[in-house]
Write a structure and sequence with these properties.
Layout lengths: L13 E5 L2 E5 L6 E3 L4 E5 L5 E5 L1 H4 L6 E2 L11 E6 L9 E6 L5 E5 L1
Antiparallel strand pairs: 1-2, 2-3, 4-5, 6-7, 7-8, 8-9
């Protein structure tokens, strides 16, 4: 599963485990439905639980890609995202992650 959007409000839904049952939950409007994808879970330190997606799901990337040269390996495709890392009146910081070697770098704008 790459991304599931709420049919009511369009918000991105997240996975939540309730009584050993997985649900897709919208944190904006509260819509909930049973999760039908592959999922594994492991108990760690007693009762706490870590959710692990299946092999197919965990390799899916939901970030957009762009043509930019990796400074580490020279490959010309990377995932990208932006974040506000400085004060609100300054530009955002662009982050890139190489699709080949996984190297992550940033560009201040």
């Amino acid at each position: 599963m790459a991304v599931k959007f709420c049919p009511n409000c369009g918000n991105i839904m997240r996975i939540e485990i309730v009584d050993d049952v997985a649900y897709m939950l919208c944190s904006r409007c509260g819509y909930k439905e049973k999760y039908s994808g592959e999922m594994l879970s492991e108990k760690i330190k007693g009762e706490s639980r870590v959710v692990v997606l299946g092999e197919k799901e965990k390799n899916l990337q939901i970030l957009p890609t762009t043509k930019v040269m990796c400074p580490n390996c020279g490959y010309e495709r990377a995932y990208y995202w932006e974040a506000q890392t400085r004060s609100g009146d300054e530009g955002t910081t662009q982050f890139f992650k190489c699709m080949k070697c996984g190297y992550t770098w940033r560009l201040y704008t």
